[in-house]
Amino acid sequence: MSPDINGRPSGGLIEPILRVHGATKRFGGLTAVDRVSFEVRPAEIVALIGPNGAGKTTLFSLISGFQPLDEGSVSFQAKDVTNFAPARMAHLGLARSFQIVQVFADLTVHEAVTAAALMRHSMGAALRKADETLALVGLSEKGANVTPELSLQDRKLLEVAKCLATEPKLILLDEVMAGLTMSEAEAVLKVVRRLRSEGMTFVLVEHVMPIVMSIADRIVVMNFGQKIADGSPAEIIEDRFVRDAYFGEDLHA
Ligand SMILES: Nc1ncnc2c1ncn2[C@@H]1O[C@H](COP(=O)(O)OP(=O)(O)OP(=O)(O)O)[C@@H](O)[C@H]1O
Ligand SMILES: [Mg+2]
């Protein structure tokens, strides 16, 4: 099989790294995630989009073990991981950023990344892993800063670094670009693209359509808990159902 222009193996024969089947989550009378199925292949960047309350963050919680599924299944690297605890998922290679950034105000950037690296390493190796990870995302010079001193862009890069330091196979990023200007977001996207070119796989929740269009190989669209579309950016733009449900006229503004 020949690699495509991004260096990824092409064709549909590659085993998905993540397979979500019929995932369902109810909160009382509300079905926040309603029989959602989708797959992610290695070194793919999949964007998960949909209006506020569509169920995107809840779907991330079901995949990463932070909330139990009511129905359905999740498999990761061909292993059934349905309702595995978050720590177990992290050990298997799944990293997740949180929409509400939890800032440990008194930790330095280097300490925060070292703490993440301790999941797999003893202290000496974790310190080295933190050096290496901060260099990868371009935060080496900020290692001694405490998080509140960071710009929003650098905080987002720190979120990515904390994920990376756990040595994941798949990273779920929940609105990591939110609040950034386009040029700040571009700096974060550059890091994501480079990591992907080295084989990392991403699922990202984003609201800003130019960002989604520029980075996603594939887009999964949710609305009222259900998956309403799944396709390439070009296919999603053309999807009338998606346009009606989600984009309205914005797409052509
Ligand atoms: N723990 C919870 N208890 C009750 N309802 C919840 C809970 N978590 C989420 N919900 C509800 O489930 C629905 C989906 O929420 P979710 O946060 O997954 O949406 P989202 O697509 O991430 O939205 P946003 O774009 O605003 O982040 C919403 O109606 C929300 O109010
Ligand atoms: Mg959300």
> Helix-strand pattern, N to C?
EEEHEEHEHHHEHEHEEHH
What ranges have pLDDT less than 50 throughout 5 or more consecutive residues? none
The Cα radius of gyration reads: 18 Å
**What is the CATH topology of the largest domain?**
Rossmann fold
Question: Explain this structure to me?
Answer:
By secondary structure, the chain is α/β, with parallel strands linked by helices. The protein folds into 2 domains: 161 residues, Rossmann fold (3-Layer(aba) Sandwich), CATH 3.40.50.300; 65 residues, no CATH class. Helix content is 36%, strand content 23%. It is built from 9 helices and 10 strands. A 6-stranded mixed sheet has the order 6-7-8-3-9-10, sandwiched between helices. A 4-stranded antiparallel sheet has the order 2-1-4-5, with helices on one face. Strand 7, helix 6 and strand 8 form a beta-alpha-beta unit. The longest helix has 16 residues. It is globular. The model has no long low-confidence stretch (mean pLDDT 89). The site of adenosine-5'-triphosphate (ATP) has 12 residues, from strand 2 and helix 1.
Summarize the structure.
It is built from nine helices and ten strands.
Topology:
Layout: E1 18-27, E2 30-40, E3 45-49, H1 56-64, E4 71-76, E5 79-80, H2 86-92, E6 94-96, H3 109-117, H4 123-137, H5 152-164, E7 170-174, H6 182-197, E8 201-205, H7 209-215, E9 218-223, E10 226-231, H8 233-238, H9 240-247
Parallel strand pairs: 3-8, 3-9, 6-7, 7-8
Antiparallel strand pairs: 1-2, 1-4, 4-5, 9-10
Helix pairs in contact: 3-4, 3-5, 4-5
Adenosine-5'-triphosphate (ATP) is lined by residues 27, 30, 32, 50, 52-58, 99.
